[in-house]
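The step that takes the researchers longest sounds almost clerical: writing a folded protein down as plain text. Below is the pair of lines this work produces for a single protein:

——
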Amino acid sequence: MFSPEEPIESTPEKTLELSRRHALSSLGLVTLGLAATTSPAAAFLSLSQSPKVNIGTSKKRNAPAEVRIDLTDLPEEWVQSNRTTLVEYTRYLYSLKLKQVFPKQVIEAHAKQKGTVWNSLPPKEWWVRMGYTLRVVDRIALEMGVKEVEVVSAYRSPSYNARCAGAKRGSWHQANVAADVKFPVKAAQVTAAARNLRNLGLFKGGVGGYWNFTHIDTRGQNINW
């Protein structure tokens, strides 16, 4: 029997960037994700066009006053170009209190280069979007009994995404709601587990199965590939 590890309060509120509504799950699970839409992700890439988010809110989680992360194995050029937000973003990731997904793994997914183009951390206004997706990934890992998750890809800047082989122009990675992940089991098992938990109401979004990783996003509309 699937049961949420932590009850999540649902409180409606409106802010400049997000519109929140009560979660509607009989299982007591939070419904996560972007409001259903047929528009491509590219329509949401402007900060002035942030998508509405349909989620349940949780009690405020305080981030640690001081965070430490080993940056020695990250590319120095990338670290320097993202230094102004790196510490704050790390603190945000720690505040999510994930159990199977570690902040450094998420950060490493951004510190990549295609040709001469470096990826970057997402805009601060969009950090919370990936928070929803990472919590979904973490819950799936917990239910599967997986102790560690590799984040292959998370946010992709438009210029970096354009250099990624097979990436769509309107990729949801550019809207910071998608993560490609690897578990230490067959990818097909992760894909099946993600879809099963989604069917139980854990989230609304896309689940894509590939031979060596699984794509999970919280776009708010269920879709498989």
In short: Confidence is low (pLDDT under 50) at residues 1-60. Residues 140 and 193 are 7 Å apart (CA to CA). Strands lie at 13-14, 19-20, 113-114, 117-118, 150-153, 178-182, 206-209, 214-217, 223-224.
